[in-house]
Amino acid sequence: MDTSAFADGAAYVKGRFVPIAEASIPVTDWGFTRSDAVYDVVHVFRGGFFRLDDHLDRFMHSMQARRLRPPEDRAAIEAVLHRCVALAGLDDAYVAMVASRGRPRVAGSRRPEDCENHLIAYAIPWIDVIPKPVQERGAHLWIGSTPRVPDASVDPTVKNYQWSDLTSGLLEAHDNGFDTAVLCDAEGFVTEGPGFNIFVVKDGRVLTPDRGSLHGITRKSVLELCEQMGIPAAVAPLRREVLEDADEVFAATTAGGVMPASRVGRRILGNDRPGPVSLALKEAYWRRHAEGWHRTPVRPLEA
Amino acid sequence: MDTSAFADGAAYVKGRFVPIAEASIPVTDWGFTRSDAVYDVVHVFRGGFFRLDDHLDRFMHSMQARRLRPPEDRAAIEAVLHRCVALAGLDDAYVAMVASRGRPRVAGSRRPEDCENHLIAYAIPWIDVIPKPVQERGAHLWIGSTPRVPDASVDPTVKNYQWSDLTSGLLEAHDNGFDTAVLCDAEGFVTEGPGFNIFVVKDGRVLTPDRGSLHGITRKSVLELCEQMGIPAAVAPLRREVLEDADEVFAATTAGGVMPASRVGRRILGNDRPGPVSLALKEAYWRRHAEGWHRTPVRPLEA
Known about the structure:
By secondary structure, chain A is α+β, with helices and mostly antiparallel strands. Chain A is 28% helix and 28% strand. Chain A contains eight helices and 17 strands.
């Protein structure tokens, strides 16, 4: 099979596999016009998905929470992801799955229940949320002045595209010469950043917020690594002052793994370099990948 | 010119006019993957735009607030809207304009500043937010249990697609056999519904919320009509109890005009029929349309 058309990425839209450049949705799809969609992103490292089942579990949970029911069941979704990666011929990939509300089956209806939900998926070359050179020196994190949308209004554990508060933080970070942002909620508790969970290290303990945040799969991996490495760790309420007073800070995300910070706001952490606990977790995270931790080999096209 | 291909609607995407069925955006456009877009909707009634300048003012404001800068200036956007309507050959139309973040010019960038913003526009046949028969009997409004996203997190005067809280209210309304929903904020103040502003009539006064709401153009029209008709009216904080205890309630939106309600939650208003003030405002709203109020004739294709 000639897969050269898929070299920049492969997508699945309306039941067909297409080159990424041809993958689109109608401008009238409610996934766009109401941001009525959920998604997930799993990565492929050296030919294997990382924690694919965890990502599929979360994606199924997100779809159920928003009552999105594309025609493909879980096994079919999994097969689509494998095929996207195989068509694109990527050893390392960023693999997205999206369920969109679609458009009403009945013309003129304004009822979500009347819409034809559909699945989109695509595999494209790896994207780091924070560029590698920035990860090396340690990210400079800005604490955004826009409060994170409350959990009661939009459930952050249902992975969604409603990034306006996060984008506001990101723009403000860039205005101030920082790499990216972390948002607090209106009560002053730390939540997350645009595309990542946040962790602090204080007096040898690792902490990550209990609210306003996605239940990140990388977050889960970090907590598992902490346990394996004998580092005390907890999911807990985390006030802004704790973030500002941390010994170390790092971000965690599928698209980048463990990404140490070296500055938080005007505060310089440690030696203005990534801290030792962050680096140890980062090293372990990638070493375990190489050892095949939670790995599902990508099925070749012939299969 | 043969415009038959545009009979279902005409769109403008990436500088080209296309039939609505062909109007799409890439699945990797940040307008979709981060809901990083603003929009506006103006209507055409019997061949004329209603308050086109007000809609363009608001759209320019929304774009500026989110730093979205498509290549088309205001005059070019206006010309695109005229041409979409003329191509579709519609006397009555729903006309949308959208500014989307687009995709990074630099592959792999995660910076909004690096993206190529773009304009989308389309004219399609009229859609009422609340179907006409429901408007006749009076809409049944459910007061949603999901709190509206706070203004500090996402500015509701910047017209956006982040409808998750509104969609939650809508699904809950339908579950309970109601037509649509109104949301309150976490402090118990009334905000708006999915696609409309809300008004109450109490002791001869007309009130609409001062927070959590779009500055609706139809809302503005209603306030002008109240002044012309000698009805006291105000934009004010509006507690949930005031909505539940109102003499009359109506919704106001571009896609439907003034739409009276006859039930709010379990409460039946008046005679379970639209109230007299609501009906007088509705009648005046459409009569003034027929008289050419705030009308901009759609430019024919030859122009």
